[in-house]
Design goal:
45% of the residues lie in helices and 15% in strands. With 287 residues, the chain is of the alpha/beta class. It folds into two domains: 195 residues, TIM Barrel (Alpha-Beta Barrel), CATH 3.20.20.140; 64 residues, DNA polymerase, domain 1. It has a seven-stranded mixed beta sheet. Helix 1 packs across helix 2, helix 5 crosses helix 6 and helix 9 packs across helix 10. It is globular, with a radius of gyration of 19 Å.
Length: 287
Amino acid sequence: MVDLHSHTDRSDGNLSPEQLVDLACQKGLKALSITDHDSLEGYDVAAEYVDGRDLELICGVELSTKLHGRAIHILAYFLEDLPDTTFRGRLVSVQQNRRERNSRLTERLRQLGLSVKLEDAEALGRAQTGRPHFAQVLVNKGYVSNYREAFDRYLDESQPGYVQRSDPSVDDVLEWIREAGGISSWAHPARFVDKDSRSAEELFHELKEKGLNAIEVYHADHSPKQVEELLSVAQKLDLGVTGGSDFHGGEKSSAALGSLNLPMTLLGDLQRLSRKVAAAGRGQTED
């Protein structure tokens, strides 16, 4: 089995990179991609720890951007070579934007009458503090009864506590990934597609024209019907297919690590796509 979407405590997950690797091995996974938000730190730690284990570790990262004014996430996978220093430097810039947003988010919550301190969230989020950590602060202080309520009442994009981040454009994100030798996949797209007036095919065609390589067809939030529709669009537009549990640990996860039972052929197809994209970038034809 393979799981190409997971998070560690280096972003908004609950487990350390080492604990996540241990869990993947316990569950019999043969391949795992760590796709922390805007950070490769979790992967870097896990890459040293995984040595000697029967687990293929895939370098990945999840980047935030916007499409038609609404938030989307793009997964980047580096299947042939690790990302270079230029790409890593861009992640540092994105993380700085996140820190600036967190300061504004703290002030917005205070304006709503909530006694919240930035350091409370940072104590939970470490170097990668985000809305999930503010949600946990609201739970800890008794303002809400659970993590989901924190988003539903305050932190979701449509709620009064939401503060926009200065995210890079989708064109920039796709170009960064391409320049770094990676391939890109739109993460959990059904969340966006189901609320948009455009068809899935229209949306994915638009992003393919911008350089998107794949669709995260298999995700814990996707119904069988949505999976079927996304798979059909991927095949029609000749886009790759990715999938994963989006495991975070604890109540932040809607599915257990490896629970989608995705076959290793999914990774094999993605690796072939990566080589094809790399060859096209060099103006070559893959044998």
